[in-house]
């Protein structure tokens, strides 16, 4: 995720970002100064920020960001945004999305996330 996209994401989640605070956060999620925030860095940051309250809703929110607010995610998006082993893990375990607005090959990240936390029988 590009730096500006990450900033917009944080603002949409209610962060009050001045330059110093954003620089502090960027030093955590992009310690090498590459100008990009990886999915894993984003997840790690959100996990730290939310303490021990990691829930399926938080994972769903992360996937929703990767899916550009769509209720499903595509294999190409997973492969582009996640490390190869994590992408393949998700692809192998995510069920097909069955909503009316799905496209061929779309995957259901909501069902996957709730199954990860024992909140469904997937």
UniProtKB/TrEMBL annotation:
It comes from the Eukaryota. Gene3D superfamilies: EF-hand (1.10.238.10). Signal peptide: none annotated. Pfam families: EF-hand_8, EFhand_Ca_insen. Residues 17-52 form the EF-hand domain. GO terms for molecular function: actin binding; calcium ion binding. Coiled coil: none annotated. The keyword Repeat applies. Keywords: Actin-binding, Repeat. InterPro entries: EF-hand-dom_pair, EF-hand_Ca_insen, EF_hand_dom. PROSITE patterns: EF_HAND_2. This is EF-hand domain-containing protein. It comes from Cirrhinus molitorella (mud carp).
